[in-house]
Amino acid sequence: MLTVVPVSAQLPLSLQNLVVENVAVGECAFRPAPPPPSQHQAVSPAGSAPSSSSTRPACYFTPPNRTVCFRGIETKRFQAGGKFNLTRWLILCDWPLRSFDPLVLSRLVPRIERLAVTGRVLQRLAHDFPALPYLRMVNITGTRLNHTGVNAFYELERLQVLNLRGNELEQIQPYRFRSGHVEVYLQGNLWNCTNDMIWLLKEQSRQYVDKPTLVCKDWKYTGRPVMTAMEYKRVVRESCLHEEIWNCSCHVSYLRLSENGLSFHPMIMVNCSDRGFYQLPQYLPGNTTVLHIARNKLQSVDSLTTNEHYQSVQDIYLDENRITTIDILEDTIWLDNFRILSLRGNRLNRIRVYSVEHAIERNPGVGKLYLSNNPWRCGCRFAIRFQRFLRKHESLVADSRNITCYFINDDDGRKQYLPVLTVTPNDICRPSEHNTAAFYNTLSIIFASLIVLIFTKLAYDYYHYRKYGKLPWLIMKMP
After folding, report:
1. Are residues 460 and 389 both part of a single domain?
2. In angstroms, what is the C-alpha Rg of the chain?
3. pLDDT for 124-139, tens place per residue?
């Protein structure tokens, strides 16, 4: 069985986004007013578009060494020298471009020690950071940055803190650093846990400081802790090395939170299609809910009823195998609890219609049943029952319109195929069979009517006895 990984008290269980700390750069909250128009500039009337001066870069130097720039960098001020040459801490607010090129830093602020960049337009770094011998802290937060290379910060020899919180990173590989130890902060990104970040489990340096708080944002694992998702992926990967399924692939398709909120229950998908199986594998990872085993050489589905590893399997895809019957599933727990059963392209010619129908009626979670591309036999009684079943459950039998059956043409001995939903007794029943079927149908109606009449008479006699205390006339005449 797959080990259930407990949830640490530090790991968030909420499906809502976490509050991301230290993303907002305080200096960017005080936006400067646009400069007053010069004598040669016309003032924009109310309601018109702002003048170009309100969108130009504006930089402000604060002694002793801090510069805050809005909407870009005023390169002319830095190139002109003066107080801007003293800049050691550069804060870039509302960065207006989709990309930021770190190469400009070595030209404008070669002695920079701290850098902060924010702005919802920024999506990528144009180049890796160059060698900036004094740069110790890089803070790129609150942007739409979605990718960084492993060497993006490699040349920063004195880097101590890398803050990438609150961006749109979906996946990263371990960064390469020259400096001895760098604290990396990654909280609040859009982590796609369907990707492989198992390396975070093996990372022992504690360099990635807030990794226990990282949360998945992809559709499959939304709100689940990244570390928990990666731990399950690791366990499932190891389970998939079992000799029975070593050539199959295994994936965690979903992590369901337990009722007490203290652990997760994984839902595992195993894909063994096109692997040459002659029988269903005798081993599956615990909590396997979906099994793809199409295009093999299976002839039997016995393991669904006898093997405990299949108790949790709800969706099974058995397409294009050699299965000739599923009668063994009649009145089984598995058939009463399945969600998807796909049997397309096998060798089925008959099924026990009443058994499948009863199972569907008892099964509240049934989703889809696929039965097309099988050599269904157009026997008179079976085809009519099968047709009634398909019409009644057309929404569940997803491929019902594509299901055909065949009969042997008396004239040339060839197989003739007809859609089951449109077949009529005249198409498939010989006159004797047709009359026999009609006779049995009439007899069934007569017997049903008699049963109803008998129960009605019993109910009347019971009521008459309770009210008047008299037994039925027939009972009174009996010796």
Report:
1. no
2. 36
3. 999 999 999 999 999 9
